[in-house]
Amino acid sequence: MDILNKLKNLDAYPKINEDFYNRTLSGGLITLFSSIAMFFLFFSELRLYLNAVTETGLVVDTSRGETLRINFDVTFPSLACSLLSIDAMDISGEQHYDIRHDIIKKRIDHLGNVIESKSDGIGAPKIEKPLQRHGGRLDHNETYCGSCFGAEASDTDCCNSCEEVREAYQKKGWAMTNPDLIDQCKREGYIQKVKEEDGEGCNMHGFLEVNKVAGSFHFAPGKSFHQSGISLFDLLASFQTESYNISHKINHLSFGEEFPGAFNPLDGAQWKQPTAGVYQYFIKVVPTIYTNIRGRKINTNQFSVTEHFRPTSGYPQPLPGIFFFYDFSPIKVTFSEENVSLLHFLTNVCAIIGEFIILFCYLLKYKPLTRRKDILHMFSNPSHIFDGFFDPQSFGEFQFPRDCYS
């Protein structure tokens, strides 16, 4: 029995006869407000517990030998699809001109409506007695071997399409400025196609797969070729107007796979310029790893960008186009989705309940508002609400939980 009596003396919550309770209006108000506040904080903690929390970290990027996927969707309201090409190059010396695979071109009218959508290219040649390399016309018992018009690398080379003639010219470092004189271009309807698209716009979307090193890619009117270590352009002079309007809208541009919460600063960017010039975007790519709550890792990238426009006036005169120059940050960002532990959730809930009990017991002990006039006086003089609240002497006399029930 002595042990039970000693345990009874340890009771921190002594029971008081209900006849001695003194219920007040102030106590009811404080209980109501404290209950509302506790429920609000409880549901806030519950929401944090049920939803994943994203933790951010920084590490040095030690990856190497990887490739980078560049996703793009760009609209040119004043440039025809037959004139546009895309090229890519990097500091390792790798160069890709007039890229066509994994790219879709859409012809659009001045209102933005799609006229035609297909993969890049002029189309299959129309064989109607084409001109042979030796100068004669193709007979029914001959194999077709078209002329390269002086750009043959050997006597056995043949150019059977307008694009093959263009490629042969590029290898020689020549610009094919007058397709009217090229038999293959006339047969394929290339000239007519360019004329038909006059006044149209073009939407190009797709992706590029490049090395993960600093480099650039650009959209430009005409076809690129390489000569003496310098990139040059064949601007199709016979169809060239006084200037190319490189106004454009970047519907989407990203580096790598999308991940939750990703922000691409160039999405929706629009730039209008009726005169020719070079529009340059300087991009800093930040490698990123996103790990979701299931442990799946997404190796992707974020980026920041600055831009600059250079008109074609002046010397040396730049070639019109849109250029994207990108470089990589040596720091990699990591995002990890994590759930709050049950123990952490319970600890926070207990802390909320305990803090409110202590706070409002202290208010009830030292601010007994038993009459209506006391309540009106409190709200008419807010400065008196906490009179003596932080009095060290009073605080030292307060004992919890006994004083909460006395």
Molecular structure report:
Strands 1, 3, 4, 8, 13, 14, 15 and 16 form an 8-stranded mixed β-sheet that branches. This protein has a 6-stranded antiparallel β-sheet with strand order 6-5-7-2-11-12, with no helix packed on it. The chain has a two-stranded antiparallel ribbon with strand order 9-10. The chain is built from 8 helices and 16 strands. With 406 residues, the chain is an alpha+beta fold. It is elongated and about 120 Å long. The protein has helices spanning 2-9, 25-50, 162-172, 183-187, 190-196, 342-366, 372-380, 392-397; strands at 53-60, 67-76, 84-90, 95-96, 103-108, 114-119, 201-211, 215-221, 223-227, 230-234, 248-255, 269-271, 277-291, 297-311, 321-328, 331-338. The model is unreliable at 121-128, 225-233, 235-242, 367-372 and 388-402 (pLDDT under 50). A hairpin with a 5-residue loop joins strand 5 and strand 6 (114-119). Helix 2 (25-50) packs antiparallel against helix 6 (342-366).
Envelope shape: elongated
Rg computed from alpha carbons, rounded to a whole number of angstroms: 38 Å
Distance between the amino and carboxyl termini: 29 Å
Average pLDDT level: 76
Largest sheet: 8 strands, mixed
Number of strands: 16
What structural class do you assign from the helix and strand content? alpha+beta
Count of DSSP H/I helices:
8
Helix content: 10-25%
Quaternary form = single chain
Topology, pairings included?
Elements lengths: L1 H8 L15 H26 L2 E8 L6 E10 L7 E7 L4 E2 L6 E6 L5 E6 L42 H11 L10 H5 L2 H7 L4 E11 L3 E7 L1 E5 L2 E5 L13 E8 L13 E3 L5 E15 L5 E15 L9 E8 L2 E8 L3 H25 L5 H9 L11 H6 L9
Parallel strand pairs: 13-15, 13-16
Antiparallel strand pairs: 1-16, 2-7, 2-11, 3-4, 3-8, 5-6, 5-7, 8-15, 9-10, 11-12, 13-14
Helix pairs in contact: 2-6
